[in-house]
Each structure stands twice: as C-alpha cells, then as structure tokens.
Design a protein that fits this description.
CATH superfamily: Glycosidases
Shape: globular
Strand content: 5-15%
CATH architecture: Alpha-Beta Barrel
Number of helices: 13
CATH topology: TIM Barrel
Helix content: 40-55%
Distance between the termini: 28 Å
CATH class: Alpha Beta
Number of strands: 13
Radius of gyration: 21 Å
Largest sheet: 8 strands, parallel, barrel
Length: 394
C-alpha cells in the first residue's frame, strides 16, 4: 500500500451524483474541507429521503435496485452467483467520472453478503436459523459459493479503477434485526433473542462446526428450546436482563462460544483472502458491524483484532446519539483492536445521531484526542445542508 490515504471523506451514493456536473460536485465536497469520497459500488435495497442539492436529478425519495453494482463488472469472472450491474448506465458511470476528475481520493464502498436479490435467486445459500427458516436478505459466508462471490466482487472492484482503498461492508452474517422491509413482531426485540435468531445452522455451518468438534445439531436444539420457551412466556426481558442471559449462555454453553469463534475465523479467512488477491497498492478496510455498541460486532462474525491484522484496518460507524457515547465506544474499540492507527471513524453529523453542531465537534475532537486520524461522514445525499456545512468547521 503506497498511496496517501484520505483523512476526511464523505460517503456517497451514485444516485445522488448521476446526471450532475461532476466538477461542481467535487468542488462542493472540497469546499467542505474534505479530501476523499467513499462511493457505493455494491449496495442493497432501501428507501432514502433526499434533501435538495444543486442540480439534483430525480425526486425526494429513492428506492435503490437491490444488490446492484455501480461499476462495470467483469461479468465472466462471476460463477455460481452472478454480477448484477445497475440498470442505469449513468449510475454505473459515476465512479469513472470521479476518477477522471481526479481531485478526490476514492474508496470503493462495497456491500457484500447483505443481498436480498441474490438471496431470492439462491435461497439454498442464505442464512438458516435453528428452525431452518431462511433469511432472504442474508447470504451465508460459510457457503463456498458465497465466499467465492465475495472474493470475486471485492477483487473485481479493486482492479477496475484507481481506487485508493476498498471499504468492505457486511463480510459476515447480517444480524436478525436489520430493518428488512415490512417487519412484523408482537414480541419486543432484545440482544439475547436477536442473537439466538441470528445464528446460522445451514448445511455449510453445521459441516464446518462438525469439523471443529462442535455439536451444531445439539446447539440448534437448545436454541429452539430456549427461544420457544421465551416466546411462550408472558414476559419481556429488560435490556440488562437480556444482556445477562446472553453472557451466561456464552459462558455456560461451550458449543455456543466455539460456534461464535468459528464464525469469526471464517470472516477473518475471507478478508485475508481478499487482501491477498487484490492489488497491494489499494488499502483494504472493513466496516465490521452495524451493532451498537461496537463490542457486539461478534454477533455478525467480526473479530475486531483479527480483522485489523488481516486487513489494513477497520472503519467503525460510531453511530451514537451524543459525543460521550461516541468517545466511550471508541476507547473500548481501540483497546480491542490494539492499535489506534488501525481504526478509522465514521460519524453521522445529523439525526438520529450528532445533529447538533456542538455534539459533532465534541465527538470529532474527542476521537482525534484518542489518536484517530481518518474520518468519514455519512451521507452526502441524505444530510440537510446545515449538517453538511458543519463539516467545514471541524
């Protein structure tokens, strides 16, 4: 890795730039005091509200194509799981236009296994809970075809354009509670229940467990018994109770603890493989979690210290409602990683997080005081103008 890394970047979607004057967009970002852009090159479905932007194309609400690629993939490289280029050539073109402008350091923000499109096409490759229910939005990285797809996608992206870095998201198992559309439940969510429902017992996970001497069938049976008992009872666990139940289960159930480590080892193996196969001149960072706080990243199979070793570092979304919680989470995250130079920060300078100018400033300066040097801000197309403008003062 020889390229100078951006210190202040802005997360961005192609649909917020396509059809606009690239020079004007880059001028706008540079004027905020930023030197990099993190462009979504592979992304999932969603529903996004967009405040007005100069020269904006389209309306106020965007529904992205699920599982689309926002570049020109080498389709022949993909095997069991195919590449799905976005249907709009203008959106696929944005990355190339930004590269041609050349004034912003570019990072390819790449969502991997959170992909409902591929899950619908290949239900046999999705996460299966202890009852055998498949999660269409969550490909299982223990499946060889999913593993290979992720490596192919990451290396294909890395070799396509003069990226400064590749930022991988969802390299593990999507958590149970991750905002799938039209979710319905009349049972309150908690960390214990979500963890039990998020464990994967597909054929590949059970085979991998057996190879390590883990009784996955027995563990799945215990998960079913525990969860069914809870769902049948007329109780709602408070957050501290659910956290204590989860800690006790991890301590008392050796197979559960070993199963968690098995998942972490698989994600480490995947990221190590990507690092080995992509150009060494391109830095590799991993967004390890969507969990809050970051210490719960293991729920998705991420191991902070392990990922920091096999990649160039981790990029952590410190998505908290106030600066105090951001800094506290960062202290623990840095401790677990073991090297602050391996930690990059993502902040949201708007609702529901640091929507106040004093809070974003305190969080930013607090992280810098801990030794964090590289920052990214989420997200260009979704932030109100005054929230974007606050970045200039940091």
């Amino acid at each position: 890795m020889s390229q100078k890394q951006a210190q202040r970047s802005l997360y961005t979607y192609s649909w917020d730039i396509a059809g606009r004057d690239i020079k004007g967009v880059v001028n706008e970002i540079l004027d905020l005091g930023l030197d990099g852009i993190k462009l979504a090159t592979a992304y999932h479905a969603g529903k996004f509200i967009r405040p007005p932007r100069p020269g904006q194309v389209g309306g106020r609400v965007v529904f992205p194509e699920d599982g689309a690629l926002y570049f020109e993939p080498t389709v022949s490289r993909y095997k069991a799981l195919p590449a799905h280029p976005h249907s709009d050539p203008a959106q696929r073109r944005v990355a190339y236009d930004l590269a041609a402008d050349g004034r912003l350091a570019m990072s390819a923000w790449t969502v991997l296994f959170h992909n409902s499109k591929l899950g619908e096409l290949h239900p046999e490759l999705t996460t299966k809970n202890a009852w055998g229910d498949g999660y269409v939005y969550a490909l299982c990285p223990m499946q060889p075809a999913v593993f290979d797809y992720g490596v192919t996608l990451a290396t294909d992206v890395a070799q396509t354009l003069p990226w400064q870095s590749l930022t991988l998201e969802s390299p593990g198992w999507a958590p149970f509670n991750h905002g799938y559309h039209h979710e319905f439940a009349q049972v309150r969510s908690n960390v214990w229940l979500d963890t039990m429902l998020g464990l994967c017992f597909c054929d590949a996970c059970k085979a991998a467990a057996k190879d390590k001497g883990i009784d996955a069938d027995g563990l799945a049976g215990r998960v079913r018994t525990r969860v069914d008992g809870y769902l049948s009872a007329n109780v709602d666990a408070a957050p501290d109770q659910a956290g204590a139940w989860l800690a006790a289960d991890l301590y008392e159930d050796a197979d559960l603890a070993a199963f968690v480590r098995l998942r972490q080892n698989r994600v480490n193996e995947f990221v190590r493989t990507v690092r080995e196969e992509m150009p060494q001149s391109v830095a590799l960072y991993v967004i390890p979690t969507v969990q809050r706080p970051t210490a719960q990243t293991w729920l998705e199979g991420s191991d902070l210290a392990g990922l920091a070793k096999v990649a160039d570092g981790v990029e952590v979304p410190f998505y908290e409602p106030n600066a105090g919680r951001v800094i506290a989470d960062a202290v623990d995250t840095i401790r677990r990683v073991g090297d602050v130079s391996k930690v990059r920060a993502i902040l949201r300078p708007g609702v529901p997080d640091l929507g106040d100018g004093a809070e974003i400033s305190a969080a930013y300066n607090g992280l810098k005081a801990l030794g964090v040097e590289a920052f990214s801000f989420y997200n260009y197309g979704m932030l109100r103008p005054d929230s974007l403008a606050r970045l200039k003062a940091l």
